[in-house]
């Protein structure tokens, strides 16, 4: 189904890959929005105050995918993109993978860096618990109180989850629907007189 996706259930354990005295610490974190990236990276920098580079890549979304890859001062495309390649290779989304490098005095060259960052990312994702999740769409229903029974009957019939409700003369319900079924549910509610249906972006 197009509304299921793979992600990781919780932050991975710290993994360590060594290459010619350089240490590469790999981490993977579940991510629900872009705003979370900075604080995770700040935490890693505090944890490794002697680190020369904290390189990372993240991806969010299923249909409209957003991603970023960052080399953090390493040669262009030698760190962020190899990390992002592993995110794609594992087929996961809503995830941030970071590899922290502590330089060991020997230069690895671009090829060596690509390999080391790829390996750090691979180990981090390999130790992560990968789970399948369902993507949901939120829908707002606005109707007058007398329509309550009709609305509740539809919700029960389709086993729809209510996120929040405001019961007054004008009632508002926020519901959560499996994304692949959202358009069909909107159609059903639009056919009922007196219900306004909004699908927030």
TrEMBL record:
Gene3D superfamilies with a match to the protein in the record: Impact, N-terminal domain (3.30.230.30)
GO biological process assignments: regulation of translational initiation
InterPro entries attached to this UniProt entry: Impact, Impact_N, Impact_N_sf, Ribosomal_Su5_D2-typ_SF
Domain of life according to the entry: Bacteria
UniProt GO cellular component terms: cytoplasm
Domain (Impact N-terminal) ranges: 20-125
Family recorded in the similarity comment: Belongs to the IMPACT family.
Protein name per Swiss-Prot or TrEMBL: Putative YigZ family protein
